[in-house]
Design a protein that fits this description.
By secondary structure, the protein is mainly beta. Belongs to the RLP family.
Length: 875
């Protein structure tokens, strides 16, 4: 007894216990200590339960309740110990001690989530009395499992997360444990190098088998586990299985759970002979390719299981056809996911009879027709509803009271909820994520909306015709995302906003006027801000200055510390913007085009905004030289400074733009963002595009000097526009090295010399404009240039000859081409507009070229063309 008491105190001394869980471990009565149980007759310690009472998550409570340290060798004095649970504590990447094999009375070991590391000691095989062995979710490994066969009484084995990639004969050793009831071997790095069959199975009592999250990468059809007729749960998800589901499934009459989800190569329908599977509760075929008509598939489900089925998940299973009308007979159904398929037709009214249903997802199909109040009549337990991306119309009266209280998700995007704002939403105040974007609403935004959904995490109302003004005081303390873009909102931005969790705010494409309020400086969590395409005026708040809008001047220095996207394009904003962004070290996308911002392009951008990848200042009044320091932006791939008052030489340090120097280009800017999960990933389109094009546009400025020859080293460049400047000298010979180039515009400059023959090596080039320069000599031919045969690409260069121009190069001196050179070289000169009218085909060329690229690239050019039209019209 004394040795056991000493061993426990030694164990306590080796542990850090910040929450004082072991505070009762003092005195001599160790059987009274917390976590200790002694034998009623002998008094020996038989149970040591130090499981973390706060096991899940990494919140403060979990961290405080961790026991950290090591397991001392004195523990071997607990010779009568039967039960040892150390789970969800932290043993600091220590190895499982070799002396564990000496505790021969052990029947239960739980070392899950304990941060043990290294090889599992084979001496565990000495514990012949062991019934339960759980070492899951650690960084452990073993080259073989031969020691397992000594544990003949083992019933529960969980080695999930253990690296068993070298233990290719694991099936054989598992088969030597006839008492096994539960086997969990998920994420064990199994591959195709495993035994697929057993001549004789000893696993006659096994009830749960989990082999999920492995890489078997062979057919699921012929495998040893199909003969385990005692199985109640079979988990094979996300393990790279392929082929057809075998008919042998029909013999597994005890099955309650079948999970084959996320095996994308799994094909064919489910077997026909499932009539004996009367105990089925959960059927999960999410992200498989079982395909076929959904009605025929569901008819193969055993009718004797209809009253027991609780989960049906066919998300992204390539199903077609109409949802069967008898689906309402699945009376116990709690979870139904038929989303992301090719289902058509109407939603059967019978769904409304599923009174136990809590989760219903029919989103992203081709369903149509009317959903009436009867479709929801008995859904009293529903807390998640997703109908998005269908052609459904919700015919619900203004006085309709939903029988459910949605607690998590209400997704209705692209359904028809309008034209009136759906009044029934005010009776679902608990929704955490609401999406009513593109739902044909043509109505005022009611005042109650912001009151009812003040606790929501994400609110999407975009792409409607919602009118009215935003509230003067907006309190959305839990909101992470607010998207009210592309509506008809007017008035000013709220005077006061409380949104400490707000990460993404989209108010673009409305009619918002007035100034940008100073509280934007205090939205410290903001990652994406899109106020584009409104009628805002004034300057951006001076967040770096001591101002009167906040009591703590230091707080201004925190603005933008989380900001990744800032889009202010197409407003009436003015003043100096960029100094306000010194703290935005994570900024990757900045677009302030089509405003009246002024000042110089600062030299500190590369230092303060090191992640910047998209930089658009088009159509403002920025002036001064282009700083060479800007070229230190290693991630920059989209640089648009067109239509400003920039001057001086184009710096040769352009070559330092490393992302543009990578052939093939790198797209650092995804067009969707992961918001939250609902048993699958949900993505929402970002409010900026164009980032997939690698572009430099310095057009319509006053740059002088030669085109730097170093520009030819930007191997990933896809679009280069230097038109409308005062550049001189030759086109660099190395320009043919820009093998990714699709669009090149050097028009309206003073370039001279011959067109480099290397231009014909640009195999992707589809848009070329060299007009209105002083170029001379024969136009190169061959390869890609043969396909660019529009003479308007070369007009205004009297010294050029050869196709596609009408004059040839047979004489010593080329005659002037069909069009006199235009003396005007500025982007606003009248001659420019005249040439536009002369060259209608050239105009079509411009439209064609710009439409090759993404939306933002197109928008910018179309706005420029609109302004050109206005000026020409008034000439």
């Amino acid at each position: 007894m004394t040795s056991e008491w000493t061993a426990l105190l030694t164990f306590k001394a080796s542990l850090s216990d910040p929450s004082h869980r072991l505070s009762s471990w003092h005195g001599r009565a160790c059987c009274q200590w917390r976590g200790i149980q002694c034998h009623n007759r002998t008094g020996h310690v038989i149970k040591l339960d130090l499981r973390n009472p706060q096991p899940y998550g990494m919140n403060q409570d979990t961290r405080l309740s961790l026991l950290t340290g090591e397991m001392p060798s004195s523990i071997v004095s607990l010779k009568h110990l039967r039960y040892l649970d150390l789970s969800y504590n932290d043993f600091k990447q220590a190895r499982i001690p070799l002396f564990m094999g000496a505790l021969r009375s052990l029947r239960y070991i739980n070392f899950s989530n304990t941060n043990f590391q290294g090889e599992i000691p084979s001496r565990i095989g000495n514990l012949s009395q062991l019934r339960c062995f759980d070492i899951s979710n650690n960084d452990l490994n073993t080259p073989d499992l031969s020691w397992l066969h000594h544990l003949s009484l083992l019933r529960h084995l969980d080695m999930s997360g253990v690296d068993l990639s070298s233990a290719t004969d694991w099936v054989r050793w598992l088969n030597m444990l006839p008492a096994l009831r539960v086997v969990r071997l998920s994420d064990c790095r199994f591959s195709s190098r495993v035994e697929k069959t057993l001549t004789h199975s000893n696993l006659t009592h096994i009830e749960i088998l989990d082999l999920s999250r492995n890489s078997f990468n062979f057919s699921v059809q012929y495998n040893w586990f199909w003969g385990l007729t005692s199985l109640k749960e079979l988990h094979l998800s996300n393990s790279e299985w392929s082929g057809l589901i075998p008919d042998a499934l029909g013999n597994m009459s005890s099955l309650e759970v079948i999970d084959l989800s996320q095996n994308h190569k799994l094909s064919g329908n489910i077997p026909r002979n499932l009539a004996s599977l009367c105990n089925l509760r959960i059927l999960n075929f999410e992200e498989t390719n079982i395909n076929g008509d959904i009605a025929k598939l569901m008819e193969r489900l055993p009718k004797c299981s209809w009253s027991k089925l609780r989960v049906l998940n066919f998300y992204r299973a390539n199903l077609t056809g109409e949802i069967p009308v008898w689906i309402g007979n699945l009376s116990s159904l709690v979870y139904l996911d038929l989303s992301a398929n090719e289902l058509v037709g109407h939603v059967p009214i019978g769904i409304g009879a599923l009174s136990n249903l809590t989760y219903l997802d029919l989103g992203s199909n081709k369903l149509s027709g009317l959903l009436s109040e009867e479709h929801f009549a008995s859904l009293v337990n529903l807390d998640t509803l997703d109908l998005e991306d269908n052609s459904l119309r919700l015919g619900l009266g203004e006085d309709w009271v939903p029988p459910f209280q949605l607690l998590t998700i209400g997704f209705f995007r692209s359904c028809d909820l309008g034209p009136r704002f759906p009044a029934w939403l005010r009776r679902t105040p608990e929704i955490v994520h609401l999406d009513i974007s593109n739902t044909s609403i043509i109505d005022h935004l009611p005042d109650w909306f912001w009151v009812i959904f003040h606790n929501a995490i994400s609110l999407f109302l975009s792409n409607n015709q919602i009118s009215g003004a935003l509230p003067a005081k907006l309190e959305i303390e839990s909101a992470s995302v607010l998207d009210i873009s592309n509506n008809s909102l007017s008035g000013t931005l709220p005077v006061y906003v409380t949104a400490p969790q707000l990460e993404r705010l989209y108010i673009s494409d409305n009619y918002i006027t007035g100034n940008i309020p100073a509280y934007f400086c205090e939205l410290y969590s903001l990652k994406e801000l899109d106020l584009s395409n409104n009628e805002l005026m004034g300057g951006f708040p001076q967040c770096l200055e001591n101002g009167s809008s906040a009591s703590d001047p230091y707080s201004f220095n925190h603005f933008g510390s989380m900001l990744e996207v800032l889009d202010l394009k197409n407003n009436h904003l003015s003043g100096e913007l960029l100094d306000n962004l010194r703290s935005a070290k994570r900024l990757v996308f900045l677009d302030v085009s089509f405003n009246k911002f002024s000042g110089s392009v600062p030299t500190w951008i590369a230092e303060k905004l090191p992640e910047l990848g998209v930089f658009i200042l088009r159509s403002n009044v920025f002036c001064g030289h282009l700083p060479k320091e800007l070229m230190k932006l290693e991630s920059l791939k989209y640089l648009d400074l067109a239509h400003n008052n920039l001057s001086g030489n184009i710096p040769s340090s352009l070559v330092d733009l490393k992302t543009m120097a990578i052939p093939g280009g790198l797209n650092y800017f995804p067009e969707s963002i992961l918001m939250f999960t609902k048993h699958q990933e949900l993505h929402f389109t970002l409010k900026f595009e164009g980032s997939a094009v690698t572009l430099v546009d310095l057009s319509c400025n006053s740059f002088i000097g030669q085109i730097p020859k170093e520009i030819s080293l930007l191997k990933g460049l896809q679009s280069l526009n230097l038109s409308g400047n005062q550049l001189s000298g030759p086109i660099p010979d190395g320009i043919g090295g820009l093998r990714e180039l699709e669009s090149l515009d050097l028009s309206y400059n003073g370039l001279s010399g011959e067109i480099p023959s290397s231009l014909s090596d640009l195999t992707f080039l589809s848009c070329l404009n060299l007009s209105y320069n002083n170029l001379s000599g024969q136009i190169p031919s061959g390869k890609q240039l043969q396909t660019l045969n529009d003479q308007y690409m070369y007009i205004g260069n009297p010294g050029l000859c050869g196709p596609p121009l009408v004059n040839n190069c047979s004489t010593n001196e080329a005659s002037k081409n069909s069009y006199e050179e235009d003396e005007g070289t500025t982007c606003d000169g009248s001659s420019f507009y005249i040439s536009m009218s002369l060259g209608f085909v050239m105009g079509l060329w411009t439209v064609f070229c710009t439409m090759m690229f993404k939306e933002k690239f197109r928008d910018a050019y179309f706005q420029m063309i609109d302004s050109v039209y206005d000026k020409v019209y008034h000439v």
